[in-house]
UniProtKB/TrEMBL annotation:
<feature type="compositionally biased region" description="Basic and acidic residues">
    <location>
        <begin position="18"/>
        <end position="30"/>
    </location>
</feature>
<dbReference type="Pfam" id="PF12502">
    <property type="entry name" value="DUF3710"/>
</dbReference>
<feature type="region of interest" description="Disordered">
    <location>
        <begin position="222"/>
        <end position="245"/>
    </location>
</feature>
<feature type="compositionally biased region" description="Gly residues">
    <location>
        <begin position="236"/>
        <end position="245"/>
    </location>
</feature>
<protein>
    <submittedName>
        <fullName>DUF3710 domain-containing protein</fullName>
    </submittedName>
</protein>
<dbReference type="InterPro" id="IPR022183">
    <property type="entry name" value="DUF3710"/>
</dbReference>
<feature type="region of interest" description="Disordered">
    <location>
        <begin position="1"/>
        <end position="30"/>
    </location>
</feature>
Length: 245
């Protein structure tokens, strides 16, 4: 904010100066600054062109990317998405948050305890481009049925009254080059929290892109029709003689 005075006793009007994006690449030339480097709030992005509209989240459309919507059992609400980018998977979930930032610190501690309780291990990567990240190793099974530990990378972003959680697995969890590709995608994500009051940590539900639900219903119907039993039923129904006069 700059103040200009012209004459003594003259009323001074404050002038708000627009913030200027610093030069250079975050993590290379300077520190990451969310408002300039993303992920962005809906009010910070004048144009949403090229992004897929999921309501509370707008994600870039990347050639070759596959996307799955994560649906909550029981409510059937869409509570997140998982994008597959060059063999790595990125799961995104957005939550309401208080005006004061710092939710990531609390959530990271909870994740650490959760991973430990599940028999895994974790450590904080203090050198993450977007702040402190959490590297976890969760127990699972390999194709031969043996216990194997899969690496996961958790990234948390505190925004204006929202929090974005990203979970990365696959090559990008540990490989710097693959991580840079996924991070570039993450930085282009836009969060639209909405204006309604929400308790902190309430998940921001998503909406399916236009045409996706109709396409899924069409595929399910086609699969049912193609099933051996379903084909027989259809044929029998189609050949039934009318019973009326």
């Amino acid at each position: 904010m700059a103040i200009f005075g012209r004459k003594k006793n003259e009323i001074v009007e404050p002038i708000d100066e627009a913030p200027v994006k610093p030069e250079g690449e975050p993590g290379v030339d300077r520190d990451w600054q969310r408002e300039f480097d993303g992920p962005f709030d809906i009010g910070e992005v004048p144009e949403l062109n090229g992004r897929i509209d999921l309501g509370a989240l707008r994600v870039p459309a990347v050639p070759g990317m596959e996307m799955r919507l994560d649906i909550e059992k029981g409510s059937n609400k869409i509570i997140g998405l998982t994008a597959t980018i060059q063999s790595s998977k990125l799961q995104l979930q957005a939550f309401a948050a208080p005006r004061s930032e710092g939710l990531w610190d609390e959530i990271r501690e909870g994740l650490t305890e959760g991973i430990k309780g599940a028999g895994g291990s974790s450590q904080v990567d203090a050198d993450g481009v977007m702040g402190q990240e959490l590297l976890g190793r969760m127990p699972g099974q390999d194709p031969a049925g043996r216990v194997a530990f899969a690496p996961n990378r958790f990234i948390g972003v505190d925004g204006p009254r929202w929090f974005l959680r990203a979970v990365i697995n696959g090559p990008a969890a540990t490989d710097a080059k693959a991580l840079a590709v996924v991070r570039a995608f993450l930085r282009e994500v836009v969060v639209d929290r909405g204006t309604e009051p929400r308790p902190p940590r309430e998940v921001l539900t998503l909406t399916a892109p236009k045409g996706v639900i109709e396409e899924a219903a069409r595929r399910r119907a086609a699969a049912r029709a193609a099933a051996p039993g379903a084909s027989s039923d259809v044929a029998q129904g189609g050949g039934a003689a009318p019973t009326g006069p």
